[in-house]
């Protein structure tokens, strides 16, 4: 992955009480949100994908680990909602041209290393992202904050799809696409709301 980063609200991490020095927080799949935005020469499309599950682990008030999974079967298009174009695009995104959802129903990320970085709640993260069964190590900045009394992680992530063999319309793999080319990078805007396990 060429560029992955978290751009998060820089509020102080709340105190996390723990008798054993560590706590597990579970993402609420009903209130957490994942929005995607993809780009082509002639415009862009956006939509949503559901969070399947997610956890963050804290020790001594610091983030030390975690993971989350996206349910790729739930990919939806929102900019063409209400017409046949949305359903057509959703089907195409689920097909082998893109994310091969029948064979790879989830996309998964697992933290492998966390380093506190600067302001409280900011972290330098290393982890493994798996899309279409292909795993790449990624590094990025992250932040976790107390927003209106709720432990919340929000993220803007840019992903290079070509590194996960998502080839359709990619100039990395095909020449002469002209205005039919689709950009390799797409964005995910993630908001996880977390509850004690």
Structure description:
The longest helix has 11 residues, at 84-94. Strands 1, 2, 3, 4, 5, 6, 7, 8, 9 and 10 form a ten-stranded antiparallel β-sheet that branches. A hairpin with a 2-residue loop joins strand 3 and strand 4. With 197 residues, the chain is mainly beta. The model is unreliable at 1-21 (pLDDT under 50). It is globular, with a radius of gyration of 18 Å. It has one helix at residues 84-94, and strands spanning 22-27, 33-40, 43-59, 62-77, 106-116, 122-131, 134-143, 145-147, 150-160, 182-196.
Features:
ten-stranded antiparallel sheet, mainly beta, 197 residues, 1 helix, 6% helix, single chain, disordered N terminus, globular
Helix content: under 10%
Q: Report the major sheet.
A: 10 strands, antiparallel
Report how far the terminal alpha carbons are from each other.
31 Å
Counting copies of identical and different chains, the oligomeric state is single chain
Global Rg: 18 Å
The strand count comes to 10
> What is the approximate shape?
globular
Please specify the SSE layout and strand pairing.
Blueprint: E1 22-27, E2 33-40, E3 43-59, E4 62-77, H1 84-94, E5 106-116, E6 122-131, E7 134-143, E8 145-147, E9 150-160, E10 182-196
Antiparallel strand pairs: 1-3, 1-10, 2-3, 2-10, 3-4, 4-5, 5-6, 6-7, 8-9, 9-10
